[in-house]
Design brief:
- This protein is an alpha/beta fold.
- It is built from 16 helices and 13 strands.
- A 7-stranded mixed beta sheet has the order 3-4-5-6-2-1-7. The chain has a 6-stranded mixed beta sheet with strand order 9-10-8-11-12-13, sandwiched between helices.
- Strand 9 and strand 10 form a beta hairpin.
- It binds guanosine-5'-triphosphate and magnesium ion (MG).
- Magnesium ion binds next to helix 9.
- The site of magnesium ion has 6 residues, from helix 9.
């Protein structure tokens, strides 16, 4: 990727808004932008102070008019210049805060392109920030996570990562490994000596402790993913048990149709909500039974699909009725999923208790490694037990409480894969020591683990890694 050209993009969403921002970055940012501005103070753009807002008229030549060289004013804007290296990208940057109409903003961008700027690729501003050392790769990813955050928890984790918490942890591990590598390589010069240069026990100790650090970080991967991406959740159960009522009660709206007629819900109804800081994507489904007609049959097929795709199940039962064979089948067939068993209609006289369900679960559980299950009693009608239900959802999904708000976690598959590779390389280096192999054999694996860790922060990076990271970004960021 070239850094010697100047890029521009609309940085705010296209549509009607109070303000719309066009961003320009690169060596010619000021020269190009000055062509379409006339500052009210009368100074040329190149002469104004950095990081200060100025009022300007935006003037462009009428499009396609080769003969008519008079420019027309299209807007009044506030302009700010941020000179290199004190800008987001580390380059000269100009930002035009125009009125937020799409015609104004596209006209400005077209004019900038005519004067020599190029339309930016998605994420190119942040990519330049990375290439100029303003951010590491985990911070660049955190910028995107900040924009996309939908719950306060995901925003908190993104902000923590943006401040460099994850990068700091990775860099610390790398420092330890670099220390080991330095000793191993120094040891190579003394071929007669073995790797006792640092002391074999000491060497093993450092490697083992870094392996443990990596393992601890890997343990946060599931929580991190759930916090960043949210969780597909299917509400399933027999007809009439109160699935749609539960959806409505959780959302505090009348989103889904509720009726006393079994088989009311036919299509999957989807809504999202935050439960204890986790984005839960709820899917209310058709009640599962022998279908009465072809429409219901299709509804049940979609229920089964939602059941299979969901990471979390809210299994709803009517606790005022004895369990039927269908209820038992549902309980037994769902053991491989994280689930909350919801005994609904607790406002009516009960026929099934939490204890009854626990007995059935104990009998049907295939092994102790099944995902977590919680049982709660609620009334979708009176809203009683709702808080317990939300707590159960959190407990089933997250392996640890989010009380330790400042604990560092990894949130992306990319981080997880790099850590797994680094862990494996350290494991091999320990094996090499145990087998009494030479220092250079051990060094190969230590160096490999260093590289894998470096991929996370981008201290070791390839175009391929960068392309993958920045492809997710929007234009203008
Ligand atoms: N007493 C009482 N009735 C409830 C409760 N929850 C739901 N109901 C009633 O149970 C009936 C069925 O509710 P729905 O929410 O439509 O049930 P569903 O599981 O979505 O049913 P299908 O869409 O047909 O599969 C309605 O008459 C609700 O008013 C509850 O907590 N207590
Ligand atoms: Mg329903």
């Amino acid at each position: 990727m070239l850094l010697d050209d100047t890029i521009c993009a609309i940085a705010t969403p296209i549509g009607e808004g109070g303000i719309g921002i066009v961003r320009v970055s690169g060596p010619e940012a000021l020269a190009v932008t000055s062509k379409i501005l006339s500052l009210r103070c009368g100074d040329p753009l190149e002469a104004i102070r950095s990081h200060q807002l100025y009022l300007a008229d935006v003037k462009v030549f009428a499009q396609d008019s080769q003969q008519d060289r008079t420019s027309i004013k299209i807007d009044e804007a506030l302009v700010v210049v941020m000179r290199a290296p004190r800008s987001y990208t580390g380059e000269d940057v100009a930002e035009l805060h125009c009125h937020g109409g799409s015609l104004i903003l596209t006209t400005v961008c077209d004019a900038l392109v005519r004067y020599g700027a190029r339309l930016a690729e998605p994420g190119e501003f942040t990519r330049r920030a990375f290439l100029h050392g303003r951010l590491d790769l985990t911070q660049a990813e955190a910028v995107l996570d900040t924009i996309r955050a939908t719950t306060t928890t995901s925003l908190h984790v993104a902000q923590q990562q943006l401040q460099g918490a994850l990068a700091e942890k990775i860099d610390k591990m790398r420092d330890e490994l670099i220390h080991v590598l330095a000793h191993l390589e120094a040891g190579l010069d003394f071929v007669e000596e073995d790797i006792s240069f640092l002391g074999q026990d000491e060497l093993k100790h450092v490697l083992q402790s870094q392996q443990a650090e990596i393992a601890a970080l890997l343990k946060t991967a599931d929580d991190g993913r759930i916090i960043r991406e949210g969780v597909m959740t299917a509400i399933v159960g027999k007809p009439n048990v109160g699935k749609s009522s539960l959806l409505n009660t959780l959302l505090a709206t009348n989103r889904a149709i509720v009726s006393a007629i079994p088989g009311t819900t036919r299509d999957v109804v989807e809504e999202s909500m935050s439960i204890h800081g986790i984005l839960v994507r709820l899917q209310d489904t058709a009640g599962i039974r022998e279908a009465g007609d072809s429409v219901e049959e299709e509804g049940i097929r979609r229920s089964t699909e939602a059941f299979n795709q969901a990471e979390l199940l809210l299994l709803v039962f009517d606790a005022s009725q004895h369990f039927s064979q269908e209820d038992l089948r549902l309980l037994r067939s769902s053991g491989q999923k994280k689930r909350v068993i919801v005994l609904n209609k607790s406002d009516l006289p009960g026929r099934v208790s939490q204890e009854d369900v626990l007995v059935i679960l104990r009998e049907s559980s295939a092994n102790e490694h099944e995902p977590r299950t919680r049982v709660v009693s609620i009334s979708a009608k009176t809203r009683s037990g709702l808080e317990q239900l939300c707590e159960a959802v959190r407990d089933v999904l997250l392996s640890r409480q989010l009380e330790s708000r400042d604990a560092v976690m990894i949130t992306r598959l990319r981080h997880k894969q790099a850590l797994l590779s680094a862990e494996e390389a350290i494991h091999h280096s320990l094996l090499a020591i145990e087998q009494g192999l030479s220092a250079d054999c051990v060094a190969v694996d230590v160096r490999a683990s260093l590289n894998f860790l470096g991929e996370i922060t981008g201290s070791v990076s390839t175009d391929d890694i960068l392309d993958r990271v920045f492809a997710e970004f929007c234009i203008g960021k």
